[in-house]
Amino acid sequence: MNDSVVQVTELPGALAVSPAVEVAGAQNLRRGLSVLRLLTRVGPGGLRKGEIVRRLCLNKATTIRLTRTLVDEGFVLHDRASGRYRLGPEAFAVGLAAEPSYELQRLAAPALRALAAETGDTVFFSVLHGYESICLSREEGDFPIRNQLVKPGDRYPLGVGGGSCALLAALADDEVADVLARNAALRAERFPRCTDDALIALVRDTRGRGYCVQPGLVIADSWAVGAVVCDLNDRPVAAISVAAIHSRLGTARSAAVGNRLMLASQELAALAGGADAQDR
Question: Structure pTM?
Answer without folding.
Answer: 0.68
